[in-house]
Input
Amino acid sequence: MASLKQGVIGIYNWLEHRLGLGEAAVEAGSHHVPVKSASWWYVFGSAATILLGLQVVTGILLALVYSPSAAEAWKTLHFLNNDIALGWFLRSIHGWGSDFMVAVVLIHLCQVFLFGAYKFPRELTWIIGVFLLLMTLGMAFTGQVLRFDQDAYWGLGIGASILSRIPLIGGPAVNLMLGGPILGGATLSRFFALHVFVIPGILLGCVGLHVWMVLRLGINEWPMPGRIVRKATYEREYHESTSKAGIPFVPDGAWKDGFFAAVIILAVVACALYFGPFGPTGQPDPRIIETAPKPDFFFLWIYAVLAYLPPSIETPFMFIVPVLVIGAMLLLPLVFGEGEKHWSRRPVAVLMLTVIAVSLGIFTRLGTYTPWSPIMNAWTSDAIPVRYLHELTPLERQGALVFQNKQCRNCHALGDEGGLRGPALDNVAVHMTYDQMVRQVVQGGGNMPAYGNALSANETTALVGFLSTLNGSDQHPAVDASRSLTGTSELKPPTASPQSGQPQ
Amino acid sequence: MTTTASPPDAPRPEEQAQHLKPEEVSRRRFLFKLSIAVNSIVGAVFAVPILGYLLGPAMKKQRETEFWVGLGPVDQFPEGETRLATFRDPSTTPSDGQTGDLPCWVRRISGNQFQVFAINCAHLGCPVRWFAQSKLFMCPCHGGAYYQDGSRASGPPERGLFEYAYRIEANNLIISVGDLPTIARPGTKQAGTCPGATKPAANAPLVQLGQVGDPVDKGGANQWPA
Output
């Protein structure tokens, strides 16, 4: 036993004499950190790195089978799912690992922002971190493209349409992205190169820099209210306190990172086992147009924002706002490099983060059920509630048929079924008069197309007749207040008009 | 190295000291700078073909990628209807697979008057669907809607559907296709070249208002269907 141990030590010494890495690694690992920074709040950076490693390993394993050709990719995904032993599991881990990595990177960003970790002397660590976030999102997007299904195909079309709006060079930019005139094999190949070579290469290099700077500058100390960061004194104070009251990162602080890494990997595996791999959805055949393409979870908010922007400001918004947001994130540590770190003394920072997080959450939620999209099959799948058809005249029942046949249901809900693009019409007669409804149907307006060409006069009469019966729980229907005056003469005093009251 | 006996060709200490002074070894310093300069030139020369290779797809003129492609006999498109047609993109490569098969909407107005619309919504390129009953194209992504003549009806698009130029040859419908239709390259149809384009008023939604609205105006004043 002793001789075996001697042998191992001998091999280590032989290697160490030539490599000289062991000593440096021990020195880096056992550097002192502030005792309060060895906290559960400080585990997200290492967790993101662990997830990156997981993605690299599973990505290489998937690349053993995946074929980055528009003609083959979708088939090889199904081959992975169904014909390769545990292929589904690897796809599932890679997909869930991606979601976990984006989430952990975002949590890490929020934590270092709230803890003021971007302040002097860690400005560049933050700036490289911003690029790491962008590259993580870039990996998520290009990864969704490699899952070459309907969502990927039309998602690329959305990307191309956004690029085409760049003034002057929009056309060439689209062709550069697509690799040719149309979306096809060349497009998938270049996204494969981005996802597998270009972005990971830069990403790993930047992670190296990021970690190097954490080691070199020391981990951020636990912020205390009133402890002000000043460039003149900060580094001296930091090193004094860590050398006096610090603990070695390995092993006294690192055990938390170790346990959290295990937990996060197990969580990915659990999600992968329970939920299974993502897609692929329908085959990427542009002739199959019965599809409602949707981006992956972390891009749903962009999808929602693009639905709500008015056409007139959409293009400037697409190109100016990202530049401003990324520019602000990059400039943040340079402008606010000194001062308070504790969140209780930075109300504007806390408020900003809260507003941004809540906004992103709301837009993501909206993106999950897309109230702005017509429900394409509502006109044949969602029947009018029977209670709305009681005691109707034949004309009004005909109107109900018109309502269904002319696809009004795709945008308008009745009895909580149907599209949400337009308002629900359960009590439309309460706030619109007969004439207003005719005008709205025939001429359109607001967000509604004009149906003057699609409806005959009889159909319009029947349709509005039906709509006029939709007055909720028997509320008073809307009436035109001037209507009673149209039959009167200035020469005669007005009398109670038959039209002024309830409809017959 | 701490050898006591110097090899015979070792520089004498005063020679070594001389070599360590930068200004006195100008030839080596010059050659080092020269090597950097040579590599900069090699890099710059090498960058030209690399950039040419990378930017190749972006450098192609729009005209170079346009081809005429047949959609089949005119008779398969009934007058007054809008139908989905598909074609194999002429610029396709073997690795394109199904993505080289593209759809489009063909509207036969009457006789040899057609409108051929790109499938891609003018907002962000999703596939629009035709609803014959309400005479609308609707987009599933962000709710854009277009009238039967392709003009914008509602929603986020800032313009109507993209159109392909067409011609009839030997009773076949032929369209000109090129780049993926986007705002920057909005289809191959030039304004005014298509017979339908010169008189959009016939299909505009508001023209028939009087006709449709008439009966309502007559009866609307005194009726509230119960």
Summary: Chain B has three helices and ten strands. Residues 65-204 of chain B form a domain with the Rieske Iron-sulfur Protein fold (CATH 2.102.10.10). The first strand of chain B starts at residue 67 and ends at 73. The longest helix of chain B spans residues 26-59.
